Amino acid sequence: MTRGPTIVRVTPSGGHSGGGIKCCCCRCCECLNLGYLTSQHGALKIAEAMLGSLCQSLLVKYGLSEASSMGSAFHGFLTTASACLLTTALLIACYVLSSSSQQLIRQSIFEFVFNAVACFMYLSASSYMGVAVNIYLYPRYALVNMYAAYPAMTAVYYIGVVVGILHGVDAYISYRYHKGLR
């Protein structure tokens, strides 16, 4: 006996969803799901995006001049931060623009797999960056006065560990949501 495709239908929860922006006596842009930004999952995604963008900006501002001495550790971390930041920003945009896409994407395996891969990439890139920073940049920091690359790159790999842990927590929450264990 063959089974047909499973259809998932998302219905609004009641009459007024509370979405959009309240203007005087009415609501504008009710298609926006701004309540997502204040939810636990939304706060987690915003934290991932903010810390990821902090890593990326520190890498570009302070690490670009030292990229040749750090080698592939710099490029690997920059690639990780850029890819994960882009995907996280796209997910936030999808969730804010449509509450039904929020439900459908979170029910799929994509969110779990993305966060698990992002967790692994951030943690491995941070450990590699930590080794490279301490081997190649610390000797210059000890000799050169006001050498800003070492403290900035140290902050990058510490923040990278935090972002990796956040993605790991998000992967766990997404897995439980995917399996229906909410």
UniProtKB/TrEMBL annotation:
Any single Pfam family the record assigns to this protein: MARVEL
Keyword Transferase (UniProt): no
Membrane topology of the entry: Multi-pass membrane protein
Domain MARVEL: 36-179
Chief subcellular location: membrane
Residue intervals passing through the bilayer: 73-97, 109-135, 155-175
InterPro entries: Marvel, MARVEL-CKLF_proteins
Record keyword Lipid metabolism present: no
A cellular component annotation (GO) from this entry: membrane
Protein name: MARVEL domain-containing protein
Organism taxonomic ancestry: Eukaryota, Metazoa, Ecdysozoa, Arthropoda, Hexapoda
